[in-house]
Amino acid sequence: MGGIGKTTLAEAVFNRLSSKFEACCFLRNVREREQKDGLEHLQNTLLSQILKEEGLCIGSTFVRDRLGRTKVLIVLDDVNDSMQMEGLVGNRLRFGNGSRIIITSRNRGTLRQTVEEDKIYKVGRLKRDDALQLLCSHAFKNTRITDYKGLAEKAMHYAGGIPLALILLGSSFLNCKSKEDLENELEKLKQFPNENIQRVLRLSYDGLGRNEKEIFLDIACFHKGHDVDEVKQLLNVRGFFVTVGIRILIDMSLISIDSRLGQETIEMHDLLEEMGRTIVQEQCFEDPSKWSRLFNDKDVYHVLKSNKVRVKCTQFFFFLFVEKNTCESQLY
């Protein structure tokens, strides 16, 4: 999951331990840089930083011998393909005794192809007190926190322990001049999610295959918090490859399986749910009848009342009104 702090944690470890190694390299944004410059360019960058020379070839016996005698600390940041790991630190390369390699990735499945399962660490969300401290340090630098503690708690709940979200929200609050401004900024998020947060989270969604994208959107719109077996049945009816799709979404930390009271439910971070629904709404902000999914009762009512249901809308909630202010719902 983007923004959870993988790079920050790896950087902290790198800075703390780098003095204990003969050579070090922190290779940032591997996914993005490989797409832009190619794997060979990344290999050359790695060699030049480790061996302090330019124009070296990773395939030469001379270079491999030197690497084999050098105790190195290498960080590969944001890897999304096993070929990147193989090309940069794979089995054909040998480093000196005591060398350490740290790899960050949004996809546990990618790491699993090269790294043993018990050596993979999942970065968790910040605990409540730490999250509140991080938010307030960016939002209320020159103001007493106690004056806005209630609003800070609401913002912290919205961010859900994701460090990047807390920092960006805090920065957006910094320009608010009054308590009313802060309340308005929080209220605005309900209709207009923070674009910078969405952009980071969207990278994980964009890296999915079509099958996984469709399953993710269905879960975001309809199935969060529901029984796993029931959700799988509904997704199977839709013609998706559910078993592999669910596994990939879990590996990407886009969903999780929660076990409580003997029941397994599908869970999703609130910001990811918000992102999924925004992706659907982006299909046509002005006309919900053009969305692939309808998940809001008001939108369903509007579309049905105006008789504008189209073939593109594949799922919606059908509401059976029992009394004036109550209703039961069923997914179709």
UniProtKB/TrEMBL annotation:
Pfam families: NB-ARC (PF00931), WHD_ROQ1 (PF23282). The keyword Magnesium does not apply. Residues 1-143 form the NB-ARC domain. InterPro entries: Apaf_helical (IPR042197), Disease_R_plants (IPR044974), NB-ARC (IPR002182), P-loop_NTPase (IPR027417), WH-like_DNA-bd_sf (IPR036388), WH_DNA-bd_sf (IPR036390), WHD_ROQ1-like (IPR058192). GO terms for biological process: defense response. Keywords: Leucine-rich repeat, Repeat. It comes from the Eukaryota. The keyword Lipid metabolism does not apply. Signal peptide: none annotated. Residues 211-283 form the Disease resistance protein Roq1-like winged-helix domain. This is Uncharacterized protein. It comes from Malus baccata (Siberian crab apple).
